[in-house]
User: Which sequence fits this backbone?
């Protein structure tokens, strides 16, 4: 495990390769995040079907999150990440080919999106354990800030560019960018020289019983941990509200704000979430060290709830964009701080399992329910009413940050560098 200090991260060749692999996939994913929901909405005109596209991501976490964690802790994380990228590339490429042949269907879009998202879950299961192993626990806040900061920059520029590109090209054509990004990630991950797993016993064959035992061990650690389990419950409602809001962006832009589904204002709306992530990447290391992830969650979740309620009342583009940006900044700030906290307290041999178990509960469970409920509410009673439901879910997260275990906990994580 590396022991260099934070200022040298940009001189760490293997970190740069890891960062580069994340950056190129962020480029492609940013384009796809705009292109796919626009494709669904243009073909169907349905807020429920458009919002349900987000469920392909959340359901993939529900189905494969725990599996990804077990595989990432038991097997070679580098190989898993490479195979996952290749699967995603093939899934998205199938949409491009079907479009060119004139046989693209909505079920095909959902199937390919689910396959790509499922591969991404397996990638993230290994990636969650790979980064702490690569940079060390003490450098995690800075490493995560650099990665999320890069994501913020790219996700501001790419959705805006995609919005303009949609004026000229079809959503399916833009997916070529995502295919190329996955292939670029494969080359960068292969080039990482540092081992992405700590030493493991490879002398005996792994059985199904071993894998099941690994799964139970990870879930047991999470369930018994005095702070990670309450934070997972907070994340159920936090992720549910955020995913629901993201799933409503296309119909919200079209039906409430009146900006349509293409053009620079539409792209800027998508990019404002990433702009919030970029701002949060600068704030997170300092604020998390000063106040701790738990305290940040207790203070910021109520503020986010008020912003969401305000958003449900706005139909003017400028003020709505500003409020949306504020919510995105605070949401990513809290999430990045709590994810870093989680990485710092989990022993290395459990990193992938416990991290993906937490995400499975929050993203696979809470986010899936959030996008499905909000989509149905938007179709029956309107997008503004659905945004009220999103705010109420976030309010539940705010209340859960005050369960007794969290106020009593130490505000900052104690680093765990050995089992």
Assistant:
């Amino acid at each position: 495990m590396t022991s260099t200090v934070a200022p040298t991260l940009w001189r760490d060749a293997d970190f740069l390769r890891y960062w580069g692999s994340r950056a190129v996939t962020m480029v492609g994913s940013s384009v796809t995040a705009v292109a796919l929901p626009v494709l669904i909405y243009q073909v169907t005109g349905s807020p429920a079907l458009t919002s349900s596209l987000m469920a392909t991501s959340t359901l993939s976490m529900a189905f494969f999150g725990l599996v990804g964690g077990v595989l990432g802790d038991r097997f070679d994380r580098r190989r898993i990440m490479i195979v996952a990228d290749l699967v995603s590339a093939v899934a998205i490429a199938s949409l491009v080919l079907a479009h060119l042949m004139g046989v693209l269907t909505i079920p095909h879009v959902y199937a390919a999106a689910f396959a790509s998202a499922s591969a991404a879950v397996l990638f993230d299961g290994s990636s969650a354990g790979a980064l702490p192993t690569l940079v060390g626990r003490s450098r995690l806040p800075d490493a995560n800030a650099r990665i999320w900061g890069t994501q913020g920059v790219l996700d501001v520029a790419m959705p805006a560019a995609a919005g303009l590109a949609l004026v000229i090209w079809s959503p399916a054509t833009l997916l070529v960018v995502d295919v190329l990004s996955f292939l670029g990630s494969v080359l960068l991950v292969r080039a990482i020289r540092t081992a992405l797993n700590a030493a493991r016993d490879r002398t005996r064959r792994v059985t199904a019983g071993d894998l099941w035992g690994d799964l139970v061990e990870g879930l047991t650690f999470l369930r018994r941990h005095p702070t990670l389990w309450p934070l997972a419950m907070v994340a159920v409602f936090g992720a549910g509200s955020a995913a629901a809001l993201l799933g409503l962006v296309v119909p919200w832009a079209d039906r409430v704000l009146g900006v349509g589904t293409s053009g620079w204002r539409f792209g800027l709306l998508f990019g404002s979430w990433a702009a919030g992530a970029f701002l949060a990447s600068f704030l997170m290391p300092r604020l998390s060290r000063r106040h701790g992830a738990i305290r940040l969650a207790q203070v910021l979740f109520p503020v986010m709830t008020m912003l969401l309620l305000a958003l449900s009342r706005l139909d003017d583009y400028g003020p709505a964009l500003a409020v949306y940006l504020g919510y995105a900044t605070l949401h990513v700030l809290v999430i990045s701080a709590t994810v870093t906290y989680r990485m710092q307290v989990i022993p290395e041999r459990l990193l992938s399992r416990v991290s993906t178990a937490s995400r499975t509960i929050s993203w696979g469970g809470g986010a899936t329910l959030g996008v499905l409920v909000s989509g149905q509410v938007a179709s029956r009673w309107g997008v503004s009413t659905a945004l009220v439901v999103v705010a109420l879910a976030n309010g539940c997260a705010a209340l859960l940050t005050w369960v007794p275990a969290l106020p009593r906990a130490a505000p900052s994580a104690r680093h765990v560098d050995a089992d």
In short: The chain has one domain: 6-408. Residues 1-7, 415-419 have pLDDT under 50 and may be disordered.
